[in-house]
Every structure is written in C-alpha cells, then in structure tokens.
Amino acid sequence: MSRHRPILIRMIGVLMIVVVPAALLYTYFSRTSIETIDAQITASNESRLGFLRSQIVSNIDRLSLSTGVLTGDSSVLNLQLSILTDDYYGTRTYQTQLKEKLGLQSLSSNWTNELSIYLPQIGRRISTLPTDTYNSLELDTADNGVWRIYSPGEDGREGYYQMRMWDPFLSKNDSVGVNAVYEIRFSLDNIRRMLRDFRQESGGQTFLLTSAGIAIGGSEGQEELVRELGQELLQSPLGEAGHRSLHVEGQQAYLSHLYVPALDAYLIDYVPLNVIHAPVIESRNLFYLGLLAVVALGLAASYLLYLNVQKPISAIVRGLKQFEIGDYTYRIRKRFHNEFDYMVRRFNDMGTKIEHLILNVYEEQNRSKLATLKQLQSQIHPHFLYNCLSFIAACAKAGHTDTVRKMAFHLGDYYRYTTRVENQMPRLREEVELVLHYLAIYKLRLERLDYDIKLPEPMQSVPMLRLILQPVVENAIEHGIEPQPGSGRVEVTGTSDGCWHTIVVEDSGQGMSETEIECYMQRLEQPMEECTGCGLWNVHQRLKHSFGPGSGISLAPSRRLSGLAVTLRWQATESDA
Questions:
Q1: Partner of 547 for a Cys bridge, out of 161, 238, 346, 570, CB 3.0 to 4.6 A?
Q2: Distance (Å, whole) CA 361 – CA 367
Q3: Residues 441 and 501 sit within 8 Å (Cβ to Cβ)
Q4: Does residue 168 have a cis peptide bond before it, meaning omega lies within 30 degrees of 0?
Q5: CA-CA distance, 524 to 163, in Å (whole number)?
C-alpha cells in the first residue's frame, strides 16, 4: 500500500497547485480593490471638502461684503451729525433707520449673524444685538479685517466668529480720522449645521480645526473627541491639503484635510476604514471559507480515488512501463469486470496507434511554432510609441498643430494595421502602406531622412506575410541612418520574374564589412540568441517556413547608396496570380 502513497501525494499536490494560486490571486485582487477604493475615496473627499470649503467661504465673503454696503450709507453720517448738533429727534430717526438697515442686511445672509456699527467719535454702538454695549478697549485690541473665533465659554457667550472693519480701512490708529467701525459676528452653529449635513452624506466625522487648536464638531457629543484629535494633528504641519491614515478610537481611519484661509482653520473629515473596506473584506472572507470547503472536498475525493481506483490502475502502469522501454507488443490480458475494462481495451489499441500519435505530436509542434511566429509578429515596440507621444507633446506645446495632426494620423494608421491579426496574408500593397506610415512618422521626427519606394504595381497585389517589410526598413533606419550625422536615405525597390519575388531595402548608413555580413548571415540560420537581432531573424525564419527553401533574406553592400542592402526573396505561389 505504501508504494501507491506517492500517487495520493501527487493528487494532493495538484489540488494545492490549483488552490494556492487562486488564493494568492484573489488576495492580490482584494488588495488592488482596496487600493482602488482608497484612491476613489481620496479624490471624492478632496472634491467634497473643496465644495464644503467653497460654501463656507462664500457665506463668509457675503457677510464681509455687507460692510461695503453699509460704508456708503448716508444714515451713519447723518446720525453722527444729529448727535453732535443735539438734534434729539433726528438722532432717534436716523438711529431707527440704521437699525432697520442692519437688520435687513443681517437677514439677507443664509447664516444667522449679528451686525454692529461703532461710532468712536461719539462713543455710540448700534447693533442687531442690543445686549452688547460700546467698549473702547475691545476696539483697541481688535484686529482690522481679520476673523477671530471666540470659543464657547468666553464671556459666558455661545461660540462665534467675529470681524471688525474700520472705515476708512487704514484709520485704526487714527482716532480722529475714523468714521465708523463695522462689526460682523456669526454663530458657530452655522458651521456646525453645514458640518452635520456634510457628515450625513459622507458617513464619517467632519469638524473644523483652527490653528489655535479649537475644534468645532458637527455634533455636541463629539466635541471632546475632535478636540483631542485636533491637538494630535496640529503637532505636525498639515499643509494646504492632504490625507493620511491614523488610529481614532482604537481603529484605523482614513482622514482628509483642507485649509480655509479666511478662518485660519482646517476642514477635517475622517471615515473608519472598516466602513469603507467592509464589503471587500466580507467578500474575501466568504471566498476563503468557500476555498477551504473546496480543499476539504478535494482531499476527500482524492482519498476515495486512492482506495477505489489505484489498484486497478497499477496493472495499466505496468503496461506503460513496458512501453517506456519500447515493448509495444505488450498487452494486458487481465479483466477487472468494471469500468477499467474499457481502459484496458483502449490500452491494447494504443500500440497500433503509436505512429498516429507521433504524427499528432508533430502537428502540435507545428501549431506551437505558428503561435510563436504570430506572437513575434504582433510585437509592438513600446519605446517607438513613447517617442512618438513625446514628439506629439513637444509639438503641441510649441503650437505646431499641423505636425501634431500628421503624426497622429500616421501613428493611428500604423498601429491600426500592426494590431490586426485576422488576416495573416494581406496584399503586399498593405505592407507598403504600413512602411509609408512608418517612414512618414520618422521623417517628422528625423527631418534629415529621405526615402523612396518603387515596387511594380502587379507585384503589390501579391499576398504577403504580415509585418514582413517594416522590420527591415526599421533596421535600416535605426542601424544605418540614425547613427550617422547629416541627411540619410532609404530606398525600397522590387522585382518579380513569375517564379520568385524580390524586394531590396538599401540605406545610406555606414554599412558592414564582408566579414561582418558573413557572420551575421550565419547567425540568421541558427536558433535565436540575445546577440541576434530579433527583427531580421524573425523575417528570415518566417520566409523560410512559409515559402520553403531558397526563401529568406540576404545581406550585401549597397550598390547605389553607401550603406547596406537587405534583400527579401520568396517563391511565388498559385495565389499570387
């Protein structure tokens, strides 16, 4: 029984080979999903926080502009004159008018606010909040045109933001030249309300953190938490905007922040990661449980197969060992009176079908070779695309729109053809058009390039392998034209005598010596190595395999130009007619 145990181990190994990669792949996909979710949450939070900031700034700006409206109002000057001239009736009238205007201006804002006007020259204060009185000390210590926060508990009042504006603006230190001081005040409940609305949409916690460490949460119950979190965040510079992961209340959370210059504060929003990742984690756990169930069932099935199948198979194994040593006359005479009898009959028929099986193996090798050729054919050089895209970007930056249009046109047609695999034997005319696009692209990038293609019209209708001419032209440019200074030229000519077709690609490069040509031709006939050029080797091998002996490429010094001449030669077929 022990001699059969390795079979069971192999079956378990196969099961693990299937299960372990699946678990690893799913783990990778889960991690990728979580990273994608994090990236989307980052973009979404930044966008939504930006919108919230714009709403807050918009309301603040609208309140700030109310001072400009009041500055040009004549009621302020009339009130001052009536007080100085002891016009009691006028004082009452203008003061009432001014209070009404302050009330109307206050109601025009979406936020609840209080507006006040200080008249330092006469020591008066007019406000929509009648409980406050004129205090010259507050004016002396106040900043001009700056919002200042008063947290809850200061002066026994509810928390609020306040800004004072002097008229004229630069008259703060000139008690004689000042006309009035305008005060704008809005409650922190305005911000809390906006934070609550924002938090309901985001599902996390949002608060405003001032540079002084005062935290304003969307709900009263979270004030202590956000205050402690704000103190922790302010220990290092936050910057204009950003995001990070940190521990909040014992769990990992994702935090985003955005600076609000008008209030010298930061909008902070955080969401527990278990809320964001919960669907992915739940799905991953269910997958792992299912995978464990599959492993358990697989192990049980393997054990049953070991008990009920292994012994009958041993006889077949002995027969296979006879085949291994070349004894194809061996036959199994024993009967098992079950399903394995069918296998025995098929095994006995195997000896007579060995030749047929060898033929199948040979055909399979040919199919594998064809698949390799198709794979080589469909290769697209990334650096060529990158260089073209960089050229397009540079031309676009320089404003050369016509060049960009031409490059995009040729590049699109070039890759449209190279990525098509449905027709493996197009007409030679299509290959020539591909080469023309390729040369046009290179001429846009390399202005010193010149080229000429002359192929007989009947020859262009001949069926040809895909991507058979372009690699040769590419080799001529990269190894012949580009390394040489000055202008360069590539010429493509073709002839056909009815039995053989020939295309010659010549360049004006430095060329190769006779010894170098001979060594290179030898490498083209050998299996591909790292030092062998992929393009010409691939073209040579494909011509040989597709059109038979005598087909392929050959190298020689160019007779018309200074460089190398690469000749493509293949045998004509019946489909050429």
A1: 570
A2: 10
A3: no
A4: yes
A5: 84
Please give the model's pTM, rounded to 2 decimal places.
0.44
Tell me phi and psi for residue 260, to 5 degrees. Answer: -115, 100
Q: How many CB atoms lie within 10 A of CB 444?
A: 20
Residues in the chain: 577
DSSP string, 103-158: HHHHHTSSS-EEEEEEETTTTEEEES-TT----HHHHHHSPBS--EEE-TTGGG--
Angle between the N-to-C axes of helices 273-308 and 5-71, in degrees from 0 to 180, rounded to the nearest 10: 170
What mean pLDDT value characterizes the chain?
A: 79
| Cα 161 to Cα 1, 230, 429, distances in angstroms | 87, 19, 78
C-alpha–C-alpha distance, residues 295 and 272, integer Å: 34
Q: Please measure the distance between the N-terminal and C-terminal CA atoms of the chain and give it in whole angstroms.
A: 69
What is the distance between the alpha carbons of residues 271 and 245, in angstroms, rounded to a whole number?
Answer: 10
DSSP letters, 262-315, are GGTEEEEEEEEHHHHHHHHHHHHHHHHHHHHHHHHHHHHHHHHHHHHTHHHHHH
pLDDT in tens, 500-558: 999 999 998 888 988 998 898 888 887 666 555 567 888 888 888 888 888 999 999 98
CA–CA distance from 525 to each of 236, 353, 506 (Å)? 67, 35, 22
Question: Which pLDDT score is estimated for 248?
Answer: 72
In 10 A of CB 283, how many CB atoms? 13
SS3 4: helix
Helix axes 310-324, 340-350, angle to 10 degrees: 0
For residue 317, count other CB atoms closer than 10 A to its CB: 11
Look up residue 229 and give its two tokens: 């979190």
Residue 533: per-residue pLDDT: 54
Type of residue found at 366: N
Cβ within 8 Å of residue 317, ≥6 positions away: none
Backbone angles phi, psi at 423, to 5 degrees: -115, 105
Residue 476: other Cβ atoms inside 10 A: 28
Joined tokens for residue 503: 């295309």
Number of helices (H), then strands (E), in the chain = 16, 15
Cis? peptide before 382, omega within 30° of 0: no
- C-beta separation of 232 from 254 below 8 A: no
The one-letter amino acid at 155? D
Distance CA(183)–CA(115), nearest Å, equals 6
Q: Distance (Å, rounded) from C-alpha 217 to C-alpha 219?
A: 5
Which helix (H) or strand (E) covers residue 94, if one does?
helix 88-107
